[in-house]
Amino acid sequence: MANDEPPVQLRTTEMPPYQMLEQGQLGGISVSTLSCAFSAIDTPYHIQLVPAKRAEHDVKTSSADGFFSSIQHAEADQFARLSAPLAMEKWFLVSRSETVTPNVAALYGLRLGAIRGSSEAQWLQRELKQAVHLVAEEKQLIQQLEAGRIDAFITEQRRLTTSFERWLNRQAAGLRLQFLRYAELGVYFQRNFLLQRPGFLTRFNRALGDCNELEISLNEAERGHLQTKAEAFLQTLNHNVVKQALRERLQNPVTATEIADYEKRWQAEYFSGEYQFIASMQSLPVSDWLMQKANSIRDGFTEIILFDRQGALTGFSRVPNDYDQSDENKFAYTIGTDEPGVYLSDIVYDRSTQRFQAQFSAPVLDSDGTVLGAITLGLDTEYLLSGATVPLALLLIDE
Q: Which of 20, 91, 92, 320 lies in disulfide reach of 16, CB 3.0 to 4.6 Å?
């Protein structure tokens, strides 16, 4: 039994809001999520608070089984495997110059700043392998930027609100904020530990998905940009193959009992990897056509899902998690309403693709205006919103 096994030994370091001491007790976002996940898989664990380098060293030397919260990096990959995310961050590049471009290649040689001990600081030091100006508080980064001692700094969305207030109160001009990337924070588990406990990481990752729905909201500018991109791609899917598949389903609808049965079969096959019913849907002409369309435009779009007026799956470019789509917002806002319309979700971490994505859904209409069903696009938001792809500059000051 899992609860007869020795406790999983974990190491971590203080990194608010993920791990932090609260009245002498270790708490925070990641700590709470871990508590939920280990409880779900009935596995005891123990957390020891140590310096960051010691945490990694203990796992590397098998003195501990894992360390958290960490972004992915090549050094740790050599002796450990990163779990699904405990938390996710949205990073921005803050600068004064119109020439600073928010992509990794453009950052080399710049004088960059970050909060000491933060995920951003670790990433900059490992990715760029150059000196980074490290400070204790974000207000110091603001001061360094305004004084011209650094060219830009990287910060996480949770810390931006107070920064905005400082800038606005001081009436600083010319500062700008650009989206840089998303970063997922997980647990690195020692490879030998995982060999000794077959199936542990799969069960742990699944429990994380149930314990923590990772979601990042989109601002108005981001929503407008993503919708424009999605609607342009959607025009290329206005094809008879799609409509004919939905017409046939409309003429021969699946019953509620069948949908429930198909959903159970789908879940069993999806998690076992032994596809029979799923394979039969993969081989449908409409699924084959959607897969070809998705492959023709690789950048920016992760999947295409087609479902009928009952929310039952009709075709897809990549195997989705569910057969029944009727319990999701994409159904409620496109078909399950008196006024069908488009729906753009917030950003979530898709564990099946291991990407951050939003979903854009729209009804599919026949030539006479009849609603046949709906189609959903998976949007690779990191690619579509990246400043390297589109000049997405959100000005802090309205001039």
A: 20
Determine the Cα angle at 397 with ends 394 and 399, to 5°: 110
Q: How far apart are CA 384 and CA 225, in angstroms?
A: 8
Q: What is the pLDDT of residues 350-375, one digit of tens each?
A: 766 667 789 999 999 999 999 999 99
Copy the structure tokens of residue 211. 């314990």
Best CA proximity match to 55, nearest among 80, 36, 32, 38:
80
d(CA 150, CA 82): 33
> Cβ(370)–Cβ(247) under 8 Å?
no
Q: Quote the tokens at residue 90.
A: 């949205």
Query: What secondary structure does DSSP assign to 124-169, as a single string?
Result: HHHHH-S--EEESSHHHHHHHHHTTS-SEEEEEGGGHHHHHHHHHH
- Letter for the amino acid at 210? D
- Report the alpha-carbon distance of residue 307 to residue 302 in Å, rounded: 17
Residue 120, CA atoms < 13 Å, CB-side half-sphere: 27
Query: Collapsing DSSP states into helix, strand and coil, what is residue 116?
Result: coil
3-state secondary structure (DSSP) of residue 117: coil
Helix (H, G, I), strand (E, B) or coil at 4: helix
Question: Rounded CA gap, 368 and 210, in Å?
Answer: 42
- Structure confidence by residue, pLDDT tens digits, 118-158: 889 989 988 888 889 999 888 888 889 888 999 999 988 77
Q: What digits encode the pLDDT tens for the residues 218-265?
A: 888 889 989 999 999 999 998 899 999 999 999 999 999 999 999 999
